[in-house]
Design brief:
Rossmann fold; seven-stranded parallel β-sheet; alpha/beta; 44% helix
């Protein structure tokens, strides 16, 4: 039986931990050859062994600063050399960086947050497109519920960047549709077991947020990986420019 991503190649940025890790795992399980990038969260060797066992292909792990144009170029070129082409790009790199309200938010931090969440997406997409010449190529951008509702206090720059991901996704979807490339976004809500909430969310805030989720539980990285797999597959070929909200009913777009 053919798996959903058999004979497909994929690149998941920020794929060493959290949501990116589970997306990479799900793609490998579906038969894809997988490349991941990382900066501060190097993939554990056991995880890379797992990807190889699931997909039948050795994964590619690349250290890269996703905001540096030359480093991104080098990473994507390595994907081209090792995989030959690219069918699915998942722009997962992003982060809050630091909580700061507008009065504490200096221009340097503002630019840093936008660079991590937006420049990275632009750079990887632009560089990867020459490799995405196969039928039914896919771009999947990871946004956030914060782009919908503004996030929690101190997330001004982050929420702004994630809202911009929606515009980037929709405009790029129109631009690439004639080439047969779909572009969609995922907007996760509260997803536990990720560096974001481990670093920036207190236990009291987690408990308060849980009371606002109709599903009665917080999300897990695998809750994002499933929709990512569907968007990466041939089943989503007529879906482009959309945002998939993944939040247990906490918000309806």
């Amino acid at each position: 039986m053919t798996r959903l991503l058999e004979h497909r190649t994929s690149l998941v940025t920020g794929g060493g931990i959290g949501i990116g890790q589970d997306i990479a795992r799900e793609f490998a399980r579906a038969g894809a050859r997988v490349a991941v990038t990382y900066r501060t969260h190097e993939p554990d060797p056991s995880f890379l062994d797992e990807l190889a066992e699931l997909s039948g292909h050795a994964p590619l792990a690349l250290a890269v600063d996703a905001t540096d144009e030359q480093e991104v170029a080098g990473a994507v070129d390595a994907v081209g050399r090792e995989l030959g082409r690219l069918d699915v790009l998942v722009n997962n790199v992003g982060g809050l960086v630091q909580r700061a309200g507008i009065e504490e938010l200096d221009l340097k931090l503002w630019h840093r947050v936008l660079a991590v969440n937006l420049d990275s997406m632009f750079l990887f997409t632009q560089r990867a497109l020459p490799l995405m010449t196969g039928e039914g190529a896919r771009v999947i951008n990871v946004a956030s519920l914060a782009g919908r509702n503004g996030g929690h206090p101190g997330a001004l720059a982050y929420a702004t960047a994630k809202a911009a991901v929606f515009g980037f996704t929709r405009s790029l979807a129109k631009e690439l549709a004639p080439r047969g490339i779909t572009v969609n976004a995922l907007a996760p809500g509260f997803i536990e077991a990720t560096p974001f909430h481990d670093t920036f969310t207190t236990q009291a805030s987690k408990e308060a947020t849980l009371t606002t989720i109709p599903a009665g539980r917080v999300g897990r990285p695998e809750d994002v990986a499933g929709p990512a797999l569907w968007l990466a597959s041939a089943h989503s070929g007529y879906v482009t420019g959309t945002v998939v909200d993944i939040n247990g009913g906490q918000y309806f777009g």
